[in-house]
């Protein structure tokens, strides 16, 4: 379940004042839902292996390559999930730290997380590390149900923030043993990822692996009622990129539907 679903429905309709200056939007802390979703067991197996071997997994790929949809499917396999969809405003540390803390806390009504809020929009490395450690310490000591999966979606929006390196490294090494971090991004951060990978801290899944294979393309096209003859050509033309495949499937399905109506 989403750790934030109950809070979103009972604490506020659209937004909740979390302090005198910051308003948190519930939508950013809910797992997205998708229509015409194609199950991808081969990638779920890769994520399962990565979560068993590493504390965190970085999934990279351009927009429209299926990162968020895959993560949402993976999240369904977990009992409790903390999800945060990041945007450009989150490059401000004060805003991001409020969202990050709230996404883990899962209960705005008790106000527990207020004591870990940052008052500084431009913190130094020690302040960032301290907040991450304090937040996760509260997270671990809480008696409430804890998420065993933390998802940071569109993390590329905060890569250029001065505090990102300190935050990312602190988070990786402070993660609870049974909690996996899943980071979704259009690219890799400018950090020595090879070092993290060599230390068995971080696993990486890139765009090549995200591409739809022919079987997955066939399942997608069936959902749109497309003719089998169009599948191979569409797969080659799109290079397995889901956004392009979906557009082709919608066009092909619509054309076939029109042809059927004309023959009636």
Record keyword descriptors for this entry:
single chain; alpha/beta; Rossmann fold; 12% strand; disordered N terminus
Which helices and strands appear, and what pairs or packs with what?
Blueprint: H1 5-10, E1 15-17, E2 23-25, H2 41-53, E3 56-60, H3 67-75, E4 81-85, H4 93-105, H5 125-141, E5 149-153, H6 164-174, E6 180-185, H7 193-198, E7 202-205, H8 207-210, H9 214-223, H10 231-238, H11 242-263
Parallel strand pairs: 3-6, 3-7, 4-5, 5-6
Antiparallel strand pairs: 1-2
Description:
By secondary structure, the protein is an alpha/beta fold. The protein folds into two domains: 5-210, 3-Layer(aba) Sandwich (Rossmann fold); 214-263, no CATH class. Helices cover 45% and strands 12% of the residues. It has helices spanning 5-10, 41-53, 67-75, 93-105, 125-141, 164-174, 193-198, 207-210, 214-223, 231-238, 242-263, and strands spanning 15-17, 23-25, 56-60, 81-85, 149-153, 180-185, 202-205. The strands form two sheets. The protein has a five-stranded parallel beta sheet with strand order 4-5-6-3-7, sandwiched between helices. It has a two-stranded antiparallel sheet with strand order 1-2. Helix 9 packs across helix 10 (231-238). It starts with a helix and ends with a helix. The relative contact order is 0.16.
From the N-terminal CA to the C-terminal CA, the straight-line distance is 46 Å
> What's the CATH H-level superfamily name of the largest domain?
P-loop containing nucleotide triphosphate hydrolases
Strand content: 5-15%
DSSP E strands, number: 7
Low-confidence spans: pLDDT under 50, at least 5 residues?
Answer: 3-20, 107-116, 254-264
Helix content: 40-55%
Total helical segments? 11
Give Rg in angstroms: 20 Å
């Amino acid at each position: 379940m989403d750790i934030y679903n109950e809070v979103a429905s009972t604490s506020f309709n659209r937004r909740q004042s979390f302090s005198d200056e910051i308003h948190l939007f519930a939508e950013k802390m809910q797992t997205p839902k998708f229509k015409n979703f194609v199950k991808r067991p081969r990638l779920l197996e890769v994520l399962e292996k990565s979560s068993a071997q590493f504390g965190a997994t970085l999934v990279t790929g351009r927009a429209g390559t299926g990162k968020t949809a895959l993560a949402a499917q993976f999240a369904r396999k977990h009992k409790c999930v903390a999800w945060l969809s990041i945007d450009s405003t989150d490059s401000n540390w004060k805003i991001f730290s409020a969202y990050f803390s709230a996404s883990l806390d899962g209960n705005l009504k008790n106000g527990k997380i207020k004591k870990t809020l940052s008052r500084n929009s431009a913190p130094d490395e020690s302040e960032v590390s301290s907040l991450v450690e304090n937040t996760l310490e509260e997270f671990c000591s809480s008696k409430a149900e804890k998420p065993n999966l933390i998802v940071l979606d569109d993390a590329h929006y905060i890569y250029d923030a001065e505090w990102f390196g300190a935050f990312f490294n602190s988070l990786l090494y402070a993660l609870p043993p049974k909690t996996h971090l899943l980071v979704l991004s259009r690219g890799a951060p400018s950090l020595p990822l090879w070092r993290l990978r060599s230390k068995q801290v971080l696993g990486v899944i890139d765009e090549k692996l995200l591409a739809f294979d022919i079987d997955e393309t066939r399942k997608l096209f069936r959902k749109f009622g497309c003719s089998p003859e169009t599948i191979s050509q569409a797969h080659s033309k799109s290079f397995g990129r889901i956004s392009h495949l979906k557009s082709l499937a919608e066009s092909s399905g619509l054309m076939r539907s029109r042809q059927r109506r004309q023959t009636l």
